[in-house]
Amino acid sequence: MADSSYLLGTHAEELERLRFQHELWLPAAQAAWQRAGLKAGCSVLDVGAGPGFAALDLARRVGPGGRVLGLERSEVYVAAGRALASAAGLARLELKTCDLLQDPWPNERFNLIWCRWVAMFLPQLEPLLAGLEQCSQPGGALVLHEYVHWDSFGLHPHGEAIRRFGQACQRSFREAGGDPDVNRRLPALLAAQGWRIEALQPLQVAGMAGSIAAQWLERFVKVYGLRLQELGLWSSADAAEADAEIAAAAPQAGSFWMGPTLLELRARRA
User: Fold this and answer.
1) What is the CATH number of the domain that holds 42?
2) Which domain holds residue 58?
3) Is the model's pLDDT at 11 over the cut of 70?
4) Among 22, 63, 182, 187, who pairs with 53 as Cys (CB 3.0-4.6 Å)?
C-alpha cells in the first residue's frame, strides 16, 4: 500500500475505485448539495476530501467567487487532489493535510460542510462533532452521507460468499474502531449539539449484473478482499468462491447487487 492512512489503503487500485465510486454517486451528491442551498459564491468545507473528486465538483459549482477547502489525512490523496485542482485551473480549491482527530480544524466558518464516508471510520466522534460546530457559520448547512444499514449489501439470489464478505468488511471496520452503521447515531448526537435536523433521506444503490452499480460493488470485493486477507478476515478460498458467484451471476436473469444503505443527513446550525 502507498501509506497506512486508511484501512482501505491509498494504492493505485483504490484510487481508481474511488474515482469510479465518485462518478456513480455524483448525481446523489449534487442533488444533496442543491437541497442544502449550495450556490455560486458559497464557501464549502469538504471534510475527509480523499483525492479531491467531490471537492473539484464543489469548486466548479461555487464559481470564481466561492471557496472550497478540503481536509484530508493522507498526504498521497492531498497531492492527488492538488494535482487535479492545478490541472483544472481552480485556484479557489485548496486541500490541506489534516488528521481530524488530532490536528486543529480551520479557524474559518463555512456556508456548507460536506462529509461523506468519514465518520464510519473514526474511533472517536467527539473531535468530528466539535470541528463541525467550529467551522459552520450561523445558519450554515451540513450534509453527511454515511451508512445506516450495512447488512443490505449483497448479491442476490445466490451470494453466500458475498454475504460473508460483507460481514468480514463490517468486522474489519469495527476492529479498527469504526462503526459501519454510524448514521444510526449521528442525528441524535448532532441534535444534542444544537443542530436542527432538516431531513433524513435513505439512498440505495442496486443494479443488475453489468450495471454501473454492479461494477462498483464487484470492484470493492476485488480491491478490499485483498486487504481483508491481510487482516486474516478473508481467505483465498473465500475470494475464489466469491469470484465464482460473481461469474455465475452475470448470465443469470434477475441476479442483482445491492449496496449498503446510505443515509443522507441534512442539518443546519442555529
Assistant:
1) 3.40.50.150
2) 12-150+179-206+260-269
3) no
4) 22
On whether residue 3 sits in a domain, the answer given is no
The answer to whether the peptide bond before residue 64 is cis (omega within 30 degrees of 0) is no
- Does any domain span residue 197? yes
Q: What pLDDT, on a 0 to 100 scale, did the predictor assign at position 132?
A: 98
Cβ neighbours of 159 (radius 10 Å): 22
Please check whether residue 172 lies inside any domain of the structure: no
Contacts of 143 (CB under 8 A, 6+ apart): 32, 33, 36, 112, 113, 114, 115, 264, 265, 266
Full-model pTM? 0.93
Is 215 inside a domain boundary?
A: no
CA distance 27 to 42: 20
**147 - beta bridge partners?**
262
CA angle 52-57-62, nearest 5°?
A: 120
pLDDT digits (tens, 9 = 90+) for 238-249: 999 999 999 999
Q: Which grid coordinates belong to 268?
A: 443546519
